[in-house]
TrEMBL record:
<dbReference type="GO" id="GO:0003723">
    <property type="term" value="F:RNA binding"/>
</dbReference>
<dbReference type="InterPro" id="IPR000717">
    <property type="entry name" value="PCI_dom"/>
</dbReference>
<dbReference type="GO" id="GO:0000973">
    <property type="term" value="P:post-transcriptional tethering of RNA polymerase II gene DNA at nuclear periphery"/>
</dbReference>
<feature type="domain" description="PCI">
    <location>
        <begin position="210"/>
        <end position="391"/>
    </location>
</feature>
<comment type="similarity">
    <text>Belongs to the CSN12 family.</text>
</comment>
<dbReference type="GO" id="GO:0070390">
    <property type="term" value="C:transcription export complex 2"/>
</dbReference>
<dbReference type="InterPro" id="IPR036388">
    <property type="entry name" value="WH-like_DNA-bd_sf"/>
</dbReference>
<dbReference type="GO" id="GO:0006368">
    <property type="term" value="P:transcription elongation by RNA polymerase II"/>
</dbReference>
<dbReference type="InterPro" id="IPR045114">
    <property type="entry name" value="Csn12-like"/>
</dbReference>
<dbReference type="Pfam" id="PF01399">
    <property type="entry name" value="PCI"/>
</dbReference>
<protein>
    <recommendedName>
        <fullName>PCI domain-containing protein 2 homolog</fullName>
    </recommendedName>
</protein>
<dbReference type="GO" id="GO:0003690">
    <property type="term" value="F:double-stranded DNA binding"/>
</dbReference>
<dbReference type="GO" id="GO:0016973">
    <property type="term" value="P:poly(A)+ mRNA export from nucleus"/>
</dbReference>
Amino acid sequence: MATMNLNQYLREIQSSWESRSGTEVSELLSFNHPHVMSSKLTAEGFEKSAERLVESPLDELVILHLRCLNCVNQQKYLEAYSEQSALVQAFTKLFQTQKEDNWALFIMYVISLDLRMFAIKADKELAKKGADKPGQTLEKAAECLMGLFRVCAADNRSSDEDTKRWGMLYLVNQLFKIYFRINKLHLCKALIRAIDASQFKDHFSLSQQVTYRYYVGRKAIFESDFKSAEKFLTYAFERCHRECRNNKRLILIYLIPVKMLLGHLPTPHLLRKYDLLQFSEVVQAVREGNLRRLNNALLQHDAFFIRCGVYLILEKLKVTTYRNLFKKVTLLMKTHQIPIEAYLEALKFMGVEDIDLDETQCIIANLIFENKIKGYISNSHNKLVISKQNPFPPLAAIMKVCRGKEISVSSFNLFTLWCVDRPNPAASQASGNFAGEAVARQTSTCFSLKNNEIDRKELINRIKNEFFTKLATI
């Protein structure tokens, strides 16, 4: 193929077109096919030869392809993109005229992929020239692909076997790759609605479904919809071919942080198998409730996490780490009425600097609000009163996900209106005794904490002598 001359190429593509062989024509229009290595295809006069040996309307596509190849050979990617864009637009018009027929879908797949790749190279070329707007060529490429998508989506009269709608998901995946690259995820919504409404939603090829759910899962992460993200990314990981290790690794880069936010920590074996040991220290820090170790792990591999776009998600694990730390403190104290100072001293030991009692209460209020702790804060006694039954519910069982509602110290007073000195409804339902105690506490009739008061010095000594020696074993 690398030594194919122009006449051989033209006769072969014409023959494939006449036999309506979409796969063969697509190969001869693809830049991943060996024919592009032949310098003879772009010899002088190739356009006239194409007009003579190839019938209309194929001749226009062939000429544009060879023009594009000529530009690529000269490494003129801006011009190559222009020729490929013209090819896609010409094919779109031709494709629309092929009623009740979809044999040309394979051609569409190839030319749309090449269009996106040339757009990326063209944008890099523009960036070297100091272009003001990054990704402008990719935006234009997306407009071309949307033209093809409309043709496919509008083919409602053909039979299920011959409809062009089978090409919708491939184009959606190409558009997803563009929108993620240029950071315009809001444009994905209409495409997702179109696929969800398609009768072929669960019948597209598995490879396309895996790609689709990978991107939908990533979009769900940006929207803090971690339950949906887990569902889509898990589907993609489990059904991705086992030999596609790089793709499975790519899925795990996003699935692991989501799973961790929902309380599922990856095993060391999984991290080793897919060369993702960057997460190893993060996992250990969250498991131990070790804030210092978590901060160090994020700092050590920040370049990797930022490049992958998961750094901010991993930072959300600080809340989970607080929860795990406070759970260990609670287990050590062996009471359902824990002084806030116990949590404060644990935070200080774990390297949290410049923290005081109010801020510690704020962190606890945040955990109560997110249902990660069942209980309430007794502001007058500076204690956390927890449910006697399952005060730290499994993260995976918490259905309510608080989206973007982080609590700062300045908002603490607002939370005292409904978190402090008030029982958590979920906690009240979990234990009849706890609910009764909460009512007594609010009416100030018989809920006394005096017998459980712990002197500050005694508390600090107890934490230092007992808690920190046992922390890693709980």
